[in-house]
Amino acid sequence: MAEIIKGGQFLVEEAKLENIFIPEEFTEEHKIIAKTASEFMEREVLPYDKEIESKNPELLKKLLKKCAEYGFTGAEISEKYGGMGLDKRTSMILAEKLSVQSSFAITWGVQIGIGSLPIVYFGNEEQKKKYLPKVASADLIGAYALTEPCCGSDAMNIKTKAILDGNNWIINGQKIFITNGGIADFYIVFARAIVNNEDKGITAFIVERNREGFSIGNEYHKMGMVGSSTVPLFFDNVKIPLENQLYEIGKGYKIAFGILNIGRYKLGASTIGSSKYILSQGIKYAKERTAFGKSIAEFELIREKIAKIISLIYVGESASYRIAGYMDNYIPLDIEPSQAIERISEYSIEHSIIKVFGSETLDFTVDEVLQIYGGYGYIEDYPAARAYRDSRINRIWEGTNEINRQVITGMLLRKALKGDLPLVPLALKFANEVISYIPEMPEYSFLSREKFAIEIFKKIFLMLSALAVQKYGENIRDAQIVSSSIADIVSHIFLAESGYLRAMKILNMGDSKRAQDCAKIVEFYIYNAIKDIEEKSIKVLSSLFSGDEQRMYISTLRKLLRWYEFPNYTQLVNEISQKAIDNNGYYLSVI
Hints:
Strands 1, 2, 3, 4, 5, 6, 7 and 8 form an eight-stranded mixed sheet that branches. The chain has a two-stranded antiparallel ribbon with strand order 9-10. Helix 8 (252-288) packs antiparallel against helix 9, helix 15 runs parallel beside helix 17 and helix 17 (512-544) runs antiparallel to helix 18. Among the domains are: 144-246, Butyryl-CoA Dehydrogenase, subunit A, domain 2 (Beta Barrel); 405-582, Up-down Bundle (Butyryl-CoA Dehydrogenase, subunit A, domain 3), CATH 1.20.140. The chain has helices spanning 28-45, 49-53, 57-69, 88-97, 102-112, 117-122, 125-136, 252-288, 300-330, 337-344, 348-373, 383-391, 401-418, 423-433, 448-472, 480-508, 512-544, 547-562, 569-582; strands at 142-145, 161-165, 168-179, 186-195, 198-208, 214-216, 230-241, 245-246, 290-291, 294-295. The chain is an alpha+beta fold and 591 residues long. The relative contact order is 0.11.
């Protein structure tokens, strides 16, 4: 059995291959579920695509019921409560496969995720028996109500109040942007618990649709995901019984943030899945479209777009299932609520990394695919236009990408100060040595150059972290440009290492041809990452220093990077893109 890996551990220890899960290790059951999910979308959902997009709430309910027949709405609900009790890897497979129709995907995603997981992990026995079997069968649809007009990412300042009145709670307030809100039967609502005129903190409640004083506003007219339901909610002296309080008074913020963490890694898988789908559409068009006497898929600038997208999908996919492997090993489905509170947040760094990366990968993909379509991409009859609109929300919900970058550095600092990660001594040690440090390039072997690059990236992170903490201390959270730049470097490390480890593990499994295909993509990703890491590092150093000190540290940075011998860029572009063109899309999918 793989050992428990802690969040952020990848920065301070060399990962062992036996602790890393890769897609090539999917079981036959995983593959069958993936195939079934793809067929479900093809047969049951995509034929209704236009009707979904015309805002048809009854159709969404009908499709969720059909989804339940396959077990997909009960994937993470224990068999004890009528679900399938499947692992996190399977949930990510489903998130990826159901992503091809965005409006339905988010409807399903809330039902299986933030709309029901608070009860799965934090509900008492009576609450689980009452709600979960009907969630699994889609007889009940759930929603998650946290955001308010005053407070989006600043969720700790919500204004909705729940006043204890005998054996009931009386809720007053407003929630906005509630996905599934118009079709839901119950809502996980977060409010400030007021007991004897004293604010006891944010607490979670289960509020059923039919409660007197509860009302639902009109559907928002959105830029994208137009077929999904998104509404405001209003609470006017809504009375709910004590038994509808979820978990403990004042612990609601831990539920809220813990469940959002889970939503983030699922969103990562979903956006990577969407990227695969829209890329395949773009490649198909590029092969059919001719200009100047040949297919535009033969043009190097089109091929460069394809190669970049392939590299992003590969490392994103590798990182997603690496995280899922960690989660399955650390968070069992039947975990006790008190344990769930702590364990769900363990991988908040990695969850934020994949949320930010997946959403920005999809944005990059839809933008470049629209460019491949040219003028036709701007026309609604072609898939690129809608994909472009649908993609944009992913950088906003589940915490904006700006907030998630702050989560990455904030959680690293917290773990370092608590002693959970030995970042402080390592960072200070290397900061003192960095001026005289001379990288020694290893002898060439399979991906040895890329492994060394990742080691150098970690050293750059240590140097920047030590220098930033020396200047700002715990106030680094307020130095947002510095902390977000460091977060991007941390993300590159995790993503590049995930791609590298996958290639190495495949090689060890005996599939040298596939390992070589992976290796080329890892080379290409690191080629592009180096440029971004250098840019972000200079942004940090120029924010910390001026004059001779600035020049010294920037010179040191470039010394750390200058050893790298860049591969032939054009050759990599043509090799990666040609395989994608030959295979009509991303060619390393296992499912």
